[in-house]
Amino acid sequence: MKQNVLVFAGTTEGGAITELLANAGVKVHACVATEYGRTSVKEHPNVEVSSRPLSPEEMRSLMKEYPVVVDATHPYATRITGHIKEACSDTGAEYIRLKRPASDTAGDDIVCVDSIDAAVEYLKGTEGNILVTTGSKELAKYAAIPDFKERVFARVLSTSANVADCVSYGFEGRNLFAMQGPFCEELDYGMLLQTSARYLVTKDSGAPGGFSEKISAARRAGATIVLVGRPPEDPGMDYQETARFLAEKLGFEIGGPQARILSIVGTGVGPGTGITSAAAQAVRDADLVVGAERMLQIPEAAGKASLCEYAPSKIFPYLDEHPEFTNIALLVSGDVGFHSAAKSMLAKVDPQRYDVRLHCGISSVQYLCARAGVPWQDVKLISAHGKMANIVGNVRYNPAVFTLLNGKEGVKEMCSQLIRFNMGGVKVAVGCDLGYPEEKFIYGSPEEVASSDLGELCAALIFNPCPDSRNPISIPDSEFIRGDAPMTKSEIRALSVAKLKLRPDSVVYDVGAGTGSVSVEMALVAIDGTVYAVEKEEEAAKLIEENSRKFGAPNIEVIRGLAPEAMKDLPAPTHVFVGGSSGNLKDIVADALRKNPNVRLVVNSVTLETISETLELPRVCAVEQEEIVCVNVANSRHLGRYNLMTAQNPVYIAVFRGKPQ
What we know:
By secondary structure, this protein is of the alpha/beta class. It has five domains: about 5-100 and about 235-250, Rossmann fold; about 110-230, HUPs (Rossmann fold, 3-Layer(aba) Sandwich); about 260-360, Cobalt-precorrin-4 Transmethylase, domain 1, CATH 3.40.1010; about 365-465, Methyltransferase, Cobalt-precorrin-4 Transmethylase, Domain 2, CATH 3.30.950; about 475-660, 3-Layer(aba) Sandwich (Rossmann fold), CATH 3.40.50. Helices cover about 30% and strands about 25% of the residues. The strands form six sheets. Strands 24-23-22-25-26-30-27 form a seven-stranded mixed β-sheet, with helices on both faces. The longest helix is centred in the N-terminal third of the chain and has 14 residues, at about 80-90.
């Protein structure tokens, strides 16, 4: 049978542990010192609340009915903690201390003092304004600082009693801020700038009290932190430990119906343009809204507790430290399903602890295509925002491509590539700052768009009137720019590339790339990957660059030098093609295997010496031989009215795959 629990609350953790117990069917009496403190405890049929200070006799009386006691008072409230422990000792009630973990207070910019009196003594010898965030109880002591009405600004809880007390101490008007926390870093930073504060006085209120946010804000503002240290106290448990202890003791499970709601909300483009009614309601229902600063400007988030953050590595630790927030709206731009932060959030969230709900928003692709009058179902969608993307390659094959871009510089780089790689005939429609009052649309050739006045947030539609729908394999030899460099012929090239079994995102080494004919065909197949064309001869390297521009393959990167030395700084390959090894075949393969033991390799040999080296590979390297094909090709040529066949040199195509040890 569950025992009744007495919770001394008034803190965020106290309210959270009260709600946890009540939802689990436990009868709870929550004690807070004021009517204001009652706001930390949510109404529930299983909860009774006392909203005034209790005498030791009243505590002992309550403990007869509530034999399990959770002390979740503030870490600086040592007097009340002493009374609670004494009453538990007198009645035999079980005492549980829910303790806020202390914060990291290391730093040359932090002055640690033992008390408010010590803080005042230190500040008497300083110059410059002071922002005090230690509450109203001992605020009168700061009046001892010379010119305190000019220098000292106080932030206190927004109750009429608090304000009246502060006014009686001489703090009013510009020197007094009455507001409820915890506060985000941006607000703390703004207040430090507003008051021109050179000193911030605070207590170590822990994560739920917004301590880390205050420290970060002070450091950004260049203010010295005067920290009133915590009084010494006995060991206790943090919120998670306390919750687990109570669950085991009282026989209930954490999770299930008590799981916190996490709504990942697509806010559409701009400051909430295109947010759906369901998404808007999720934000209105939330008790904490999380997102980047521009997303927090949506009307539905006004007046809500907020966290200005978008990194999962910071958001979820913050939520762990703030159990009082049980309904969280996590804002992401655009739609949750289109190149959204929702994907990384979902990878981090624990479904046992959160009831995750996704709400769609109008994405930039929907918005821009609607403005352009283009059905977005017919558009190839890619993103070059914060990542590499082969825009040219996708434009080559598609009549319409949509891409997110890295601002105005991303637009200019895209237009430059379109021109450089033979795509200057396309048309580009750029949407800048979509959904904002400064929204603008620009349409024209790549040259015209690049020279336009662009906005900060940019997306583009590129229209190609003549997309190339041909299979990129076995391009006629005559189409390549030729020089004195050797070139793998069309038929051999087609079979070699086919044997590699490339994927769209493959990372490929073309060793001994010659004119770049194999590099080009591999790059056109691996359209979202990269081909590193390794070539020791400068004239051949220049030919590769010319051919990559001619065939619209910007995903070829020419690496000048002799393999394997030239390969040492390249990323791990998924595939390697060796057309020329200069006698270094074993070392080339060993380098590729070191980076990726599962790499797939194709080695072409014309001479008997090279085929001999190739046959030795399974013995000297960790590879398995998949097949060796000898290809004899003869091409026809006209001689008068006859067709004569002219034979090429036979070529051995050897296929290997890595064999991890």
